[in-house]
Task: structure prediction
Amino acid sequence: MALTRTDYEHPDEVLEDDNLSRLQKSTLLARWAYDELRLMSSSYEGMAGGRKSRLHEVMEALREVTPEDSDGFDLGIPKA
Result:
C-alpha cells in the first residue's frame, strides 16, 4: 500500500518512520510540499482551506532527508 501524507499528522513523523527509505521519505515530503503550495494558492484565491499551511515544516523535514553532499537541485531546495 502506498503511503500518503494523510498517513502522518506531522512531517517529523515521516522522518521518524524507519520503514521508509530516504527516497520514499523525500518523495512523500515533496508531494506533501506540493499539496501545501496548492492549499496556499487556493487560500490566496479566496478558497480558504480552514487550516494553516505546514509548508515551512514540510520543507524543513525535506531538507533533513536531502543528502549532505547534494546541492538540493533535484528537490528544488536551496542550501542554507
